Amino acid sequence: MQRGDGEDSIRSHHPLRERPTAGPDIVHPKARAFRLAATFNLPIVAMPTETKQEDFVTAPLVVVTPEKIEKPFALDLKSVPLK
């Protein structure tokens, strides 16, 4: 998904039957993520700003906070039901 600033974001959707936190996940370029985190006072999942579309699948993810702190992204697999 591309915005007017030329930075691409990744968006995916997970139906409720696939995991308990159904709905869209959006991963923003880090520069935009810091702006969004400060604006909405929420942690935002981010990837390096310079990531090319062909590298989206393997890009390292972090979580940026409203306090401008970068934390490792971790998926809690214990909360995801296995099929």
A few lines on this structure:
By secondary structure, the chain is α+β, with helices and mostly antiparallel strands. It is built from one helix and five strands, in the order ββαβββ.
* Arithmetic mean of pLDDT: 76
Radius of gyration: 13 Å
Number of helices: 1
First-last Cα distance: 30 Å
Whole-number count of domains: 1
Give the strand content: 25-35%
* Overall 3D shape: globular
pLDDT < 50 runs, ≥5 residues:
13-17
Reported for the largest beta sheet, the result is: 5 strands, mixed
Give a count of the beta strands, DSSP E runs of length 2 or more. Answer: 5
Helix-strand string: EEHEEE
Fraction in helix: 10-25%
Strand line-up in the sheet with most strands: 1-2-3-4-5
Structural class: alpha+beta
Would you kindly provide a written description of the structure presented here, covering whatever features stand out?
The chain is α+β, with helices and mostly antiparallel strands and 83 residues long. Helix content is 13%, strand content 27%. It has one domain (1-55, 71-76). Strands 1-2-3-4-5 form a five-stranded mixed sheet. It is globular, with a radius of gyration of 13 Å. The termini are far apart. Mean pLDDT is 76; it is low at 13-17.
Topology record:
Layout: E1 10-14, E2 23-29, H1 30-40, E3 44-47, E4 62-64, E5 70-72
Parallel strand pairs: 2-3
Antiparallel strand pairs: 1-2, 3-4, 4-5
Properties at a glance:
alpha+beta, globular, single chain, 1 helix, 5-stranded mixed sheet, 83 residues
